[in-house]
Amino acid sequence: MTDNNDLLQQRLHDLADELGPLPVPHEEIRHRTRRLRRWRRAGSLAAAAAVAVTVVTVSVALAARPTPMPVTAPDGPFLGWPVTGNATGTGLLAEAVQVWDSTRASGPHTDIHALLVDRDPVLLGPVVVLEGRDAQGEPRLAILTGTAEDRDALRLRADRPAPDPVTTRVVSMVSGRLSTATGIEPLDSRPSAWLFALGAPGVTGFGYHSTAVDQELVEGGGPDLGRRLLVSLPPGATPINTTVIARHAGAVVFRGPADGGAIGDAVAVPATVLTRSSDHARIQGSPRALLPGRLVATPDGLLGRITAASGEEADVELVTAASFSIDALTDITYRPLRVVGTGGNARLDQVPADANVVATNRIVTVDPAQHSDRLGTLTIGRVGTTGHDLVPATATSDLSRVYVMVEYEAASR
């Protein structure tokens, strides 16, 4: 075996001698090796950098993506939101239940759950929102507040059917009757309306605006101030002309008109426009709402007045009709005048010499359904360039949904 190994080694040496020196010198091999290592190291760094960029990009994308709005499971027919507010551990809840029970003829309420038990230190004092069943077992929602005159007196402001627990994101109310006893018009010469809103869990802030206000209000930006909102507005603000905007982590999760007013406020009953012209419209709605003489409005202001009704349909004489005429007031100063239609447009009439009416001034009218000369006025239009022509607040070119203004007493029967 040893002889064979020696022969094999000798043969290998002979082959090496036959091949001669290597065609690639050792220095070149070492150079190529170093260069290959540099390429590999650079490739590794580039790959690492690419991975890092990818991770950062994904992280930024995930950070920019808004957090989903939390979902609260409905509690049967109720919202089921957890109670919030700064007065949940006081006797305010028991007081609110007692007031709710004593101000409804339907008897004591059961299955009561509080959504908000709060004390506002600046505006209205106590504010409470309750869910519960009335004596007939119907689910209801109540809003109670204090008053500017007596901040410790809790009063029932709204008593409504419970809202849809699946789709509701905001409970809200707009009314100028929150500074006095329930249903009473304030005696102030310049009263304020109030916008109250409570958001679902996950709402972090609110925005709002109203077509009854000339100056720009918060549209939807601003800081996140929590799930509730209570602000004062001009007396002409109503649920249909006030938009509530709710946000979650900066994203808008709700935008729409306020839910309704308070006890004593006119009720805006929706109707559908069937046909329209420059002077007249025909609408369809609840027969109980369609009575001659009632005003018809949009979120922008007055559309016209019902002149005839039959069943579920009614004729509306528009502000622009040549036969239209209505008592009006200058906004803020409340100087009396009249607005008359001209057949396709409108103008001012019987303008007092001291009214000081100028272009763009807002002209409003008292809504008889409000039982008030100041609250819930409807904008008819704005003064034009000549000082006597009027640009109507509501355009008739694209109407589909309007509102008939109905007295609270009539709407509550």
From TrEMBL:
InterPro entries: MreC_beta-barrel_core. It comes from the Bacteria. The chain crosses the membrane at residues 42-64. It holds the Pfam family MreC. Keywords: Membrane, Transmembrane, Transmembrane helix. Residues 285-386 form the Rod shape-determining protein MreC beta-barrel core domain. This is Rod shape-determining protein MreC beta-barrel core domain-containing protein.
